[in-house]
Amino acid sequence: MDRKIMFEDKPLVTEEEIKEALNFCVGQVESNLPQFTHQFQKAYSENLFYQPIDNNYWTTGFWTGEIWLSYEYAKESLPGSADKLREAGEIQIESFLDRIDRKVEVDHHDMGFLYSPSCVAGYKLIGSQKGKEAAIKAADQLISRFHPVGEFIQAWGPMDAPENYRLIIDCLLNLPLLYWASEETGDNKYREIAEKHIHTTIKNVIREDYSTWHTFFFNMETGEPDHGATCQGYRDGSAWARGQAWGIYGCALAYKYTKRKEYISIFRNVSQYFLEHLPKDMVPFWDLEFTDGDEQPRDSSAASIAACGMLEMAKTLEGEEAALYTDYAKKLIKSLYDNYAVKDPKVSNGLVLHSTYSNHSPYNTCDHKGVDECNSWGDYFYMEALTRLNKDWELYW
Ligand code: GLY
């Protein structure tokens, strides 16, 4: 694929802006603690305000992740706030341990989204033993969804139905939990399953032009690849913006954990497809089919996820290429900071506006919800990108 350099004239976010943005985010997280310590933020805001929910949805780990990112920042820059953030993080870890023990809404693949930014983070940052116990139990839950026939982890639904016999691109972010579990337990079974799933995913969800399928089905009897389909994208053959962003970050993590060199070149091409389909301000519409002039909602969360993936891959690239992806990430975050980030707590209790969870179209299969709102992962990955730009960050993933 010919990879021309894009967005050469766009400004980079500055160090001062990164600090300003982090100060605001941490202040916002702190002000949210009274409402969201014993409960969690809903996946998406309504009229720009999150409501509290119990720990029973696939997204609750992102809010806890924001608490841990805030704790890390506060420890270095706002010491007066660190203790209460840590305390809130620990209370949330208790809830995650209880959830996995009671198996509350864990019959799906999102154990990594739930347990990496909450419990693995708490274990890495403060040595939380409850966090470690909960995350290993979550890894066990995740590998229980592995199909040896087809060699993949099934995303959703009961395991014995052909209509559920599929993986989804998002799952690449769930797999670091398995590498971590192997590291902690000394048992390679988690890593071996993760590796098989990564290879099956990358072989099947990346199309010839480096756009991506959201979901991919396999034949239940033979394990042979069957067909790709969207759930949250506009139509089957289009590229759902967040799916493409999960692909960017997913390839960077796939390389980090497998060290397979071909994943670097796939990362480059999947990133290029994303960049070439962005509108002028670099923040994608919810599907890359749409661009400037289309009356469609944005998905600002996809910009943050892509920025995190580029910053991760830049760590292993050399010289000019590392600088290129770092600059793309700084430009994405600059655009978010200037025009999408919440600047006034009276406007929203979230961090980033104009995100889209699921936009129903005549050709997709998802419910219509969380459109042009803040969402929990959009806020989390914006903070993660800022943290990565602020220091040499040890991943929760
Ligand atoms: N992983 C589901 C989503 O990105 O909406």
Word description of this protein:
This protein has 397 residues and is mainly alpha-helical. Helices cover 51% and strands 7% of the residues. The chain has twelve helices and nine strands. The chain has helices at 15-32, 60-77, 79-102, 111-126, 129-143, 176-185, 189-205, 241-258, 262-276, 300-314, 319-339, 376-390, and strands at 40-41, 52-53, 146-147, 152-153, 166-168, 215-218, 225-229, 355-358, 369-373. The chain has a three-stranded antiparallel beta sheet with strand order 5-6-7, with helices on one face. A two-stranded antiparallel ribbon has the order 1-2. The radius of gyration is 19 Å and the shape is globular.
The secondary-structure class comes to: mainly alpha
State the strand order across the main sheet. Answer: 5-6-7
Order of helices and strands: HEEHHHHEEEHHEEHHHHEEH
Radius of gyration: 19 Å
Bound compounds, please?
A: glycine
In terms of DSSP E residues, the strand content is 5-15%
- Biggest β-sheet strands, sense, barrel: 3 strands, antiparallel
Using the alpha-carbon principal axes, give the shape: globular
Tally of extended strands? 9
Total helical segments: 12
Portion of residues within helices: 40-55%
Note the gap between the termini: 29 Å
Q: Kindly state the mean pLDDT as a whole number?
A: 98
- The residue ranges in which pLDDT falls below 50 over 5 or more consecutive positions are none
